[in-house]
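Q: Got a minute? One more chain.
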Amino acid sequence: MTTLLLAAAMLPPIAPHLDHASLNGALTGVSVRNAAGEVVFKQMGDTRLVPASNQKILSVLYALEVLGPDYRGEIRVWDNEYGPYVHAKGTPGVTFEELRALGAGGKGGTVRVYQDFAPSIPPTWEWDDLPFAYAGRISAWGVNNQRFEVFAEKGAILPLDPALNQIRIVRGAPVGTLNTRLDVFTRRLYVNGVLPQARTSIGRFAIPDPQLAATEAFRPGAVFVTTNVGPRLESRIECSARRPSVRPPRFASKTATTSTPSNFS
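A: Always. Here it is, folded:
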């Protein structure tokens, strides 16, 4: 069942689209109002239906209104004798390569991360959606829009990014139709059937633990620890930077932003 909320500005002929074959078997309610609040089109507009992804749509509208379409997230990093300290402000589009560059080749140790948000799995999400690319867990510290893609070539599965070592690929019988399935709880990716010879994408999935993947890309082998002391630490550093007479902080700071626009799809 689907409920669509459409802006009044989007008013081409709507009825033919509601009769499309792709909606066969679905209940679709549409109510369109103009700026004055007057109903200009309605089809089952007063019927109570279970909402679809309206929460996502409204979240995107709010983000575009507050942040703007050109928003770039930011990651701030300080290095000290205890290891790197990260303040993640929300960078959904940051890539594995960008995090590796920010980590400057460091390995192991402990990475302390302060995140502006990290709800992970919101209470309204359906658990059977979690394996799919559109349902990546929500966190400010993450990578690659919290998802990954699997490719096959010459009858074999191509290796995943090294930062995705949390995922174990389980190869089934190489016969029959190709199908893939990710269990986000055991972190096993099951691949059954005949693999293609030409390089082909065989599935797009949500990263089971995007915070772990981001940490592994940033500093391979490191332990990820969350912390809640970020704002005070950041204020101290900024204050010291403004006043040369104050003893310089022990933390060497570096900042990175995503090179591509944030993807809200």
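A: The chain has five helices and 14 strands.
Q: Perfect, thanks.
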